[in-house]
Every structure is written in structure tokens, then in C-alpha cells.
């Protein structure tokens, strides 16, 4: 095993990741106080959240009706719990718990 | 404003707890996968320290197995993580303007950290110190997961199937929180449409294309001057 090669790959990937995260801060630092940026700052996050939820659902690789039903049930639990109780941890734990038990316990 | 160090930390810990339930099992999954390469297990948490990007680290396992060049790894990572370029837009006005904290916060701006920070109402956030704790805690969950997965794999096989749902649930909860304070909810339908379109046309670059489409609609919307506020 070539440890130097491994560390080189880690370093290169770490730098590339940092560049993608730092680019707007470096490129747009002059306009950081511009009001137009505040508007993006308000409207963009919920839109990105929709995209991330969709991405998460796609990554679950729902290939059977059972799995689809389990996913739907778990999502519904999260939505209902959070709409009424507004406790993020509870909503996430309950939904994930049902999903994990469904997959590991019932083989869905 | 002048919250104590302890209360900032406790608030960050409470807010970041859901990420812990997503990052630890996901980091373990990476660790298990990484162990298949045959390197010392300590390199798995090191990847979490140096790279700190979930999808990039999973890709790294494939790149290392294939023995790609540094240049290929660099370009592949830039492409994979390019969605992060949009994240800075929403948080830059709330981040400290200089210093080491600023650069660490930028380094640690993952999907989940971004979600937590943008879900926090600006008035209630404890400032740079709160953000630093939040980012540091999230990264520590990830590094611990990477170490556990790789280190413990020889002792017992941890069944992490299903835990990936925690991240979907987290995004969903944060979406519900953000929808409460959103004025133009039709933009959410646009985002859903952009997701469906991006996934059917470019499944490999899904996140970048979908977020790019959302931003394009916002640009047109703001240019047309229809937004008051």
C-alpha cells in the first residue's frame, strides 16, 4: 500500500472541495452587503432544501412497492410530527426509527 | 449577542444532534468501504479531517482503487462538489469577515451544516462562535463515524442499513421550518420541477443542474423586479 499516494489523493481532494466552498466568498466578497444577495439568501435555501430532499429520496433506491410504502410512511411520520410538535430531533428519530425497523426487522 | 460560551455550545449541540444520527452511520459506511482497500484504518478518519465531504470521500474509495492521477482526482472532486458554490451565497453575510474561524466555517460548509445555518433565524443565532461550534460538532460526528466504521470492522459488522433515511428526514424537517417563513411558496414547486427535470436529464450531475436551474429562475424573477421586500 502506497501511503504517500493515498495522502496525495486526500490532499488534492481536500483542496478541490475547499475551492468549491470558498469560491463565492472570494469572488463575491465585494458585493457581500448588496441587498440583492440578501434576497437570494432568503429564497434559495428552501429551494435547495427541496432539491436535497428529492436527492435523498432518489438515493434511498426505492425499487419495490414495499420499500416505497415504507418510505412514504416514514416521510409522513416526519411531516406530521414536525407540523404539530416542532421538535426536530423527535421527528427525525421517529421517522428514521420506523424506516430502519422496516428494513432490518421486516426485510422491506 | 453576548451569549456565554457554554450556552452557545449547548445550543449548537442541540441543533446539530440530528446530523449526528445521519453522519455517524454514514461515516461508518465510508469507513467499512474504505477498509476494503487495505490501508491502515486510521486513514479513514484522516479522510474525514482532510476532505470532509461525504460524496467525495465515497468517490475517493473508487478513485484510489482505480489508481487515478492527482489531476483526475482534482477535477473529479471539483465537478462533484460544484453545488457548494451556491451555498456561500446564502451564508456569506452571516459569517465573520476575517480570521481563522471564517476559513474553517467555509471549509466545513457541508450540505447539512448549510441546512442548519440557513434554517436558523438571523436574530437568534449566537454569531461566529455558535457557527464554529456547529461546524466543528458536525465534522467531529463525521470523523468519529469514519473511525468507527474502519476501526471496528474487524470486530463486528455493524448493520447500518436504513440509517441513511436520517439525512432525508433532516432535510425535510429543515424544509418545513424554512417554508414557515417563506413568502413565495410557488418557488418550491419550481425547485421540485427543477429536481425532476435535472434527474431525468442529467442523473450524474443532478444536484448541480437542479440548483443551477433554481438559481436561474431566481435571477429572472429578481431581474423582472417582481419581488418587494
Kindly describe this structure.
The complex is a heterodimer of chains A (108) and B (229). By secondary structure, chain A is mainly α. Chain A has two domains: 1-32; 63-108. In chain A, 82% of the residues lie in helices and 0% in strands. Chain A is built from four helices and no strands. The two termini of chain A are 39 Å apart. The model of chain A has no long low-confidence stretch (mean pLDDT 87). Chain B is mainly alpha-helical and 229 residues long. Chain B folds into two domains: 5-181, no CATH class; 182-229. Chain B is 72% helix and 0% strand. Chain B has helices spanning 5-35, 43-50, 54-66, 70-80, 84-91, 99-107, 111-119, 128-152, 165-180, 186-201, 206-223. Chains A and B meet through helix 1, helix 2, helix 3 and helix 4 of A and helix 1, helix 2, helix 3, helix 4 and helix 5 of B.
The biggest beta sheet of chain A is recorded as:
none
What share of residues are in beta strands of chain A?
Answer: under 5%
Measure the end-to-end span of chain B: 25 Å
Strand element count of chain B: 0
Helical region count of chain A?
Answer: 4
Distance between the termini of chain A: 39 Å
Low-confidence stretches of chain A: none
Shape, per Cα inertia axes of chain A: flat
**What structural class should be given to the helix and strand makeup of chain A?**
mainly alpha
Radius of gyration of chain A: 20 Å
Share of residues in helices of chain A: over 70%
Provide the helix percentage of chain B: over 70%
Oligomer: heterodimer
Order of helices and strands of chain B: HHHHHHHHHHH
> What is the helix/strand order of chain A?
HHHH
Gyration radius over CA of chain B: 19 Å
Low confidence ranges of chain B: none
How confident is the prediction overall: mean pLDDT of chain B?
85
Amino acid at each position: 500500500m502506497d501511503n504517500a499516494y493515498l495522502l496525495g489523493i486526500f490532499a488534492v481532494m481536500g483542496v478541490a472541495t475547499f475551492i468549491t466552498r470558498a469560491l463565492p466568498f472570494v469572488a463575491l466578497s465585494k458585493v457581500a452587503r448588496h441587498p440583492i444577495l440578501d434576497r437570494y439568501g432568503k429564497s434559495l435555501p428552501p429551494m435547495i432544501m427541496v432539491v436535497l430532499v428529492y436527492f435523498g429520496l432518489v438515493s434511498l433506491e426505492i425499487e419495490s412497492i414495499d420499500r416505497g410504502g415504507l418510505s412514504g410512511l416514514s416521510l409522513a411520520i416526519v411531516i406530521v410530527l414536525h407540523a404539530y410538535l416542532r421538535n426536530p430531533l423527535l421527528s427525525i428519530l421517529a421517522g428514521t426509527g420506523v424506516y430502519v425497523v422496516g428494513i432490518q426487522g421486516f426485510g422491506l | 449577542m453576548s451569549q456565554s460560551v457554554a450556552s452557545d455550545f449547548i445550543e449548537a449541540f442541540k441543533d446539530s444532534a440530528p446530523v449526528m444520527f445521519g453522519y455517524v452511520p454514514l461515516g461508518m459506511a465510508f469507513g467499512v468501504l474504505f477498509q476494503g482497500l487495505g490501508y491502515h484504518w486510521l486513514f479513514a478518519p484522516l479522510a474525514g479531517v482532510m476532505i470532509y465531504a461525504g460524496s467525495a470521500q465515497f468517490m475517493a474509495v473508487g478513485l484510489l482503487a482505480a489508481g487515478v492521477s492527482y489531476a483526475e482526482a482534482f477535477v473529479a472532486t471539483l465537478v462533484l462538489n460544484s453545488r457548494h458554490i451556491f451555498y456561500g451565497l446564502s451564508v456569506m453575510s452571516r459569517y465573520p469577515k476575517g480570521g481563522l474561524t471564517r476559513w474553517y466555517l467555509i471549509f466545513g460548509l457541508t450540505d447539512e451544516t448549510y441546512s442548519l445555518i440557513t434554517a436558523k433565524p438571523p436574530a437568534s443565532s449566537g454569531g461566529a462562535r455558535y457557527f464554529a461550534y456547529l461546524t466543528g460538532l458536525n465534522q467531529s460526528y463525521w470523523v468519529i463515524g469514519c473511525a468507527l466504521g474502519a476501526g471496528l470492522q474487524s470486530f463486528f459488522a455493524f448493520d447500518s442499513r436504513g440509517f441513511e433515511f436520517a439525512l432525508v428526514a433532516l432535510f425535510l424537517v429543515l424544509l418545513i421550518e424554512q417554508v414557515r417563513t417563506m413568502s413565495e411558496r410557488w418557488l418550491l414547486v419550481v425547485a421540485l420541477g427543477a429536481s425532476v427535470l435535472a434527474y431525468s436529464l442529467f442523473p450524474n450531475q443532478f444536484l448541480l443542474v437542479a440548483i443551477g436551474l433554481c438559481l436561474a429562475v431566481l435571477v429572472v424573477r429578481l431581474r423582472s423586479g417582481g419581488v418587494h421586500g
